[in-house]
Amino acid sequence: MQTNLADFIKDTPAGREADAILRSCVHCGFCTATCPTYQLLGDELDGPRGRIYLIKQMLEGHAVTTRTQLHLDRCLSCRACETSCPSGVRYHRLLEIGRAVIEQRVPRSLAARATRYLLCEALPRNWIFKPAVRVGQLLRPLLPAALADKVPSAAGGVRRPWPRPAARPRRMIALAGCVQPTLTPNTNAATARVLDRLGIELFEVPGAGCCGALRYHLNAQEKALDDMRRVIDAWWPHVESGSVEGFVMTASGCGAHVREYGELLRHDPAYADKAARIAAMTRDASEVLAAEQQQLVELLRRQGDGSGQRVAFHSPCTLQHAQKIRGVVEALLTAAGYQLSPVADSHLCCGSAGTYSISQPVLATQLRDNKLAAMRAGSPALLVTANIGCQTHLQSGSRVPVRHWIELIDERLGAAS
User: Fold this and answer.
1) DSSP states of 108-161 as a string?
2) Which of 311, 304, 322, 111 minimizes the C-alpha distance to 213?
3) How many CA atoms are closer than 13 Å to the CA of 197, on its beta-carbon side?
4) Which residues, at least 6 apart from 88, have a Cβ–Cβ distance to it below 8 Å?
């Protein structure tokens, strides 16, 4: 499409990037067919094509209002539209640029600012988040239903041990992250146990903290960049020494973000090269296991045929649309002896989307319930996914347990141990 960006942005790096993205869009409308919010609301402005038009108007200097902000806020950033776009429009980057601009031009209410500030400051800090969860659990019966729904009933679950330290020929680093150590501490431990069986030592580096995705998607982009620099500083000595071969992500949301470090920090001369190197060394846990599939299958074969338990897998948007990893987890679960239950509309978001379930609770609940109905249609014994946000969001509406897929692999490998 033709563009005529306003002076305030046209000669900036963000303006040049936005202009290129806008010009690549031909307004064909393929994206609307896969947009979760357009399917729910039926409003062109709540679909990618409409939001692109709103951002174009804003960047060309037209007036913007709280209505414009609402349509952009309603976007899940699920990137299903990018998967279906024949022109390769990088919609998520345009949305990030547009949201940063509108944040400066349209003031939010005091309550909205307070909520966003609390999310930005509390969630990335485990020393705040962990006790807050514990207090929330104690007060859960007294909380309003909408708030009680966000508090996990049993945060953390059973903490199983990491494998005992042992010299392994290969070493990789896991990101602990911000909320996952409190809500599902067994996820990284299970990954470490599985990789240990494959001759790979997995460890976490103290001080890495949050990957920055949470703050970045709340438009606190400068704070998010600081989060990213802290992760790089914590990991870089291991990269520089050559003592690790890569970074393992057990939360696909973190993995999608870390893989964009190189792009997001490309204008920072002190971090650009380091960020690009770390992004290139980052792998989802499923990719690491798939690369060792022959050895993994042999280990599984020794454990017998498996339970044949029926499970339904929800592929997070950050796995299938952002990282474009499709079918890998499903193949690993099948190899481990699990029966996969079909899930209709598997490309659609579950409604978690970082803090979306808090900022847009009505839409998030509708999407969650639709996803759960699709997953339960095949009567599975378990629901599984690959991201902490999806796991807790789905569990808040399900009596069927929702678990991380790596735990199922771990249990199969440890069945006879």
Assistant:
1) PPHHHHHHHHHHHHHTT-HHHHHHHHHHHHHHGGGS-HHHHTTS-TTTT---PP
2) 322
3) 25
4) 24, 82
For residue 184, pLDDT beyond 70:
yes
pLDDT higher than 60, residue 156? no
- 293-413: CATH, from 3.40.50.1860, 3.40.30.10, 1.10.1060.10, 3.30.1490.190: 3.40.50.1860
Angle at CA of residue 199, ends 156 and 289, nearest 5°: 65
CB environment 31-61: b (16+ within 10 A), e (fewer) = bbebbbbbbbbeeebbbbbbbbbbbbebbee
Global pTM reads: 0.92
Query: Could you report the per-residue pLDDT of 50-63, keeping only the tens digit for each?
Result: 999 999 999 999 99
**Token pair for residue 147?**
């708030």
Q: Give domain 7-105's CATH architecture.
A: Orthogonal Bundle (1.10)
Calculate the dihedral angle through the C-alpha atoms of 219, 237, 276, 216, rounding to the nearest 10 degrees: -10
Which residues are registered as beta bridge partners of 312?
383
Question: How does pLDDT run across 130-152, given as a tens digit for each residue?
Answer: 888 888 888 778 776 666 776 77
Q: H helices of 186-304, where?
A: 186-197, 213-217, 221-241, 252-258, 261-264, 272-280, 285-291, 293-302
417 by DSSP, 3-state: which?
coil
Amino acid letter for position 333: L
